[in-house]
Amino acid sequence: MGSINSHVSFPLEGLDLRPFLAKECTSQITTYDLFSVICHHGTAGSGHYIAYCQNVINGQWYEFDDQYVTEVHETVVQNVEGYVLFYRKSSEEAVRERQQVVSLAAMREPSLLRFYVSREWLNKFNTFTEPGPITNQTFLCSHGGIPPNKYHYIDDLVVILPQNVWEHLYNRFGGGPAVNHLYVCSICQVEIEALAKRRRTEIDTFIKLNKAFQAEESPGVIYCISMQWFREWEAFVKGKDSEPPGPIDNSRIAQVKGSGHVQLKQGADYGQISEETWTYLNNLYGGGPEIAIRQTVAQLQDPESLHGEQKIEAETRAI
Prior knowledge:
- Its main location: cytoplasm.
- It is found in: Cytoplasm, Cytoskeleton, Microtubule organizing center, Centrosome; Cytoplasm, Perinuclear region.
- The protein is 30% helix and 28% strand.
- By secondary structure, it is α+β, with helices and mostly antiparallel strands.
- The chain folds into 3 domains: 76 residues, no CATH class; 84 residues, DUSP-like, CATH 3.30.2230; 102 residues, DUSP-like, CATH 3.30.2230.10.
- The strands form 6 sheets. Strands 1, 2, 3, 4, 5 and 6 form a 6-stranded antiparallel sheet that branches.
């Protein structure tokens, strides 16, 4: 095994990785050019880092040593003791493709339609040799409009292209869909309002039922609910989570006795709710198992010794 100072030879251009690709890889371009090197001077435990980076505009290499930046010849880079090498995929065809798009845009052909394209994909087109199909779904909802929560910053998500540029990119890369009109999706808006109403209804109903439960001096039955599930439900109704929880899962707090009865597990992380609250949540989400704590009143043999008082025994059992 070489040390941290071992010299490793590496090409500045034309590193071909085709022999190392997985069989299922669909990439057509497999050559890479170096654009940065990190060098480490010192021991494995301490030392100093220097970086060499290429300016993509003029092809010039520079040495970065803390606050000092110095022009260097590529032969210097070729002979450094590389610690980390950074390569990017290279393709003259991709460069020509970008130049063609710039030329088409400069023609300023009058067009009846202007098209919107994903800024994210266009950034990939400008930097990747294989950007893949156009992905306008990144700013669209499933109905083809703009999600209401994205509309206020839609200018950050799209770029306007003249018709001739759009048609060239679409014919070359495919994907889409074509978008020449931006509008807020009314279907999504209705769904958002319905979700907000559902959240308000559920949390308001819970607060109302729990307030009534707290007012009971001696409830006949107390239901147990897993706090893990309850926290997920609470995050949903308060808008912290976008998705509602699944069915109530009391399995973590339940203990099944030999007789098949389900009891509360000792030391379980649970909350106490009323029968009405349990019924409400269970009707909405389903799940279980039901775990209830019932209070039974038992008279002693000698009522006079209690001076008319009664002994309360708590009994936990499944319903």
